[in-house]
Amino acid sequence: MNKPMILRICSALMCTVLCLSFYILPVAAKTKEEIQSDIDKQNAIKTDSEQKESDFQKEINAMQAEIDVVNQKISDLNVQIAEKNAVITQYQAEMNGLQAEIDTADARQRELDSEISTTYDLLSERLYATYVAGETSTLEILLSAEDFATFLTRLELVRRIAEHDTSLVADLQSDIDELKSTTEKLSRDKAAVEEKQAAVKSERDAIASSRAEEHKARNLQESKQNTIEQRLSKQSQITEGAEKQIEELNAAMEEYDRKHAEEMENGSGTIDNSGSSNYPVSSKGMIRPLQYPNVVISAGWYGYPGHKGIDFTTAGATGNTYGKEIRAAADGVVDSSEYHYSWGNNVFINHGNGVYTRYAHCSKLLVGKGEKVKQGQVIAYVGNTGNVSPRPTASNPHAGAHLHFEVWVNKERVNPAPWLP
After folding, report:
1. Residue 55: what are its φ and ψ, rounded to 5°?
2. Is the pTM of this model over 0.85?
3. Which of 203, 209, 274, 313 has a CA positioned 20 to 30 A from the CA of residue 380?
């Protein structure tokens, strides 16, 4: 085999080995400082995102309140418009009635015109007949009577004709005058109603214009609200992403505890403590880790989901928990004394027979791994290291300070309360 071929084969083998090494060799785990930095960043992202979500929700609520006010105004304006329309309809009914009366009067006017025309024709015919008969006067007609009876008959006839003509003319004139008066009154009434209707329509149109402006205002608010809701939705995605990252980091915390538990010893689950301290001792042989008169429990066993321990703080005159002395609950040997991104500075003490205690979030550790401690010995100071709430800030560096205390029996966490006085 020639040299170039050997070189090519060796190169191919080296590439194969390098590629396989990515799967065979473990990836370097992050340091506790890197993990702490990661969770701090995710907590900061989550806190900022939640604040923005809260601000967006407040804006949405405020805009919804404004929209509700506008909707109420629109509703009120709709009622007013409906009332105006009812009045307009009423006026229209009145005008329709008056118009019907005017139409009736017009019909009566046409009838009178016809009667006047007929009367005029009759009078004209009689005058024409009189003219054709010659210039015979009414007196001549009367005097030409052959006897007195005929005279009286003719006189009565003449009187009746005169009365008929006079009555006919008078009645027609009276009807014409009455009809004229009625028509004029109906026209005035109709004009008055039309004027009122026009005024109400003007008021209605003004209200409708105001309603249109309110609709514009509501549409603008709804548009702004939709925009903020979209921003809220995006912000919620950011929050969910941060929460997912925190869940993964908390899973790493559980893995830390799991590995720690694997190294613990099993036993009877009891401790033989002679009561070497001067503090009250429980029936199980432990004292309280904080020996102050104003100590309170801020979160008990499962005080919130997943809380497997007891949180101690102080209240009252001394108030500030930060820096308080933490004492060993019983005699034992320090199993570990280190920093963890979630538990902060924390100490595990092996009390024998499978019983351990943990003291977390300390500001300072005073004992090291393998060191023997006595019950009541100060092993650390209360702090707010690791994952605490609220988070410390520049303006409040002691925020979230408390002691998280745990009891482990045969590799499992148990409720610490029965172990304490």
Report:
1. -65, -45
2. no
3. 274
Biggest distance spanned by C-alpha atoms of the chain: 181
| Helix (H) / strand (E) containing 378 | strand 378-382
Distance of CA 83 to the CA centre of its chain: 32
Distance from C-alpha of 179 to C-alpha of 182, rounded to nearest angstrom: 5
Of 161-165, 350-354, 408-412, the least confident: 161-165
Q: Check: CB of residue 351 under 8 Å from CB of residue 335.
A: no
Domain ranges (residues) in the chain:
47-240, 275-419
Is the per-residue pLDDT at 195 higher than 50? Answer: yes
Q: How confident is the model at residue 141 (pLDDT cuts 50, 70, 90)?
A: low
**Where is pLDDT greater, at 380 or 230?**
380
- pLDDT classification of 131: cutoffs 50, 70, 90: low
Q: Which tokens go with 192?
A: 């008055």
Name the residue among 354, 336, 343, 329 with its Cα closest to residue 387: 343
CATH topology of domain 275-419: Glucose Permease (Domain IIA) (2.70.70)
Quick count: other Cβ atoms within 10 Å of Cβ 373? 21
- Residues 6+ away with beta carbon under 8 Å from 350: 264, 265, 332, 333, 334, 335, 356
Q: Which residues contact 92 (CB under 8 A, 6 or more apart)?
A: 197
Question: Which residues lie below 8 Å from residue 197, measured CB to CB, with a gap of 6+?
Answer: 88, 91, 92, 95
Q: Let me know: does 332 contact 408? Beta carbons within 8 Å.
A: no
| One-character DSSP codes across 280-318 | ---TTS---S---TTEEEEE-TTSSTT--SEEEEE-SSS
Instruction: Tokens 């799967």: give the residue.
Output: 23
Percentage of the chain surpassing pLDDT 70?
82
What is the predicted pLDDT for the residue at 142?
Answer: 64
Q: Is 286 exposed, middle or buried (0-12, 13-18, 19+ CB in 10 A)?
A: buried
Residue with the bigger pLDDT between 9 and 43: it is 43
